[in-house]
Fold non-specific serine/threonine protein kinase.
Amino acid sequence: MPSKSDPNGQNTMERVKKEFTYMSRDSRFIVEVLGIVKDGFGSPVILMPIYPLGSLAGCTLTEKESITAFRQILVGLMHLKNFDILHRDIKPGNILIRKRTPKRFQIVLADFGIAEIFDEKAEVVNDRSDVWSTGIIMLEKMYGLDKEKFPKPESESGRAEWYARWQEEVRSKVESIDSESEPGSLMKEMLQRIFVKCDKRVDAWGCHGVGSQIKLWRRHSIRLRARWWRSWVKWVDGVPEMRKQENQGDRKRKRMLLDTGEVNLHASDVK
């Protein structure tokens, strides 16, 4: 954003370009950033490659692909949070398919809230709303939740009633999941941690940790390559120099979670 010392916002633009380029380079689950420009209204826009396989919108996934996407979305959100960025618009159309073969399935997060980083006064808030949206995608892809049956009303007057009905439908769908067999029982446990009041909901780190603890990822997702997984853990331990002095206490907490296995981002979790 323009300021007295940077009236055209050029220095901020260059800083953001460098940070977003570094961020996308160090996560397979964040869209590759080719550049950042401003549109006709002065808003920042990410230039990214074309992904021929499209997005999760209208895409039918296998059970393993769905759970793999679940895990990768969480890892992408965790990575964004390390840069104090929330996505704010997690939906199938913003999750692009990077690779899809019988043995490999990989997604990337796109169209996240780039404008946030331009606002130096913006508050850093939690990513629990992004986690909620991720859970909704899993209910859609794996258990047939139909959002089209609950169109959001345009007027403010009807939104409270709509929201209450929508929440009831979501929780009802979670309760209907067959818990007598896997992965239904594990998915049900995960989703029950997500669809609660915001102050009680796990964030992306906590949600991934739950998946590791109940062995959802190990048993039912397409495994990640160990070499890349080790490099991601190494990145968490040694963050970029430009961010090293920021949120130091929070990063120590995350490293502690890694070491104690509460998050369990270790190569032993993959082949």
About this structure: The first helix runs from residue 10 to 25.
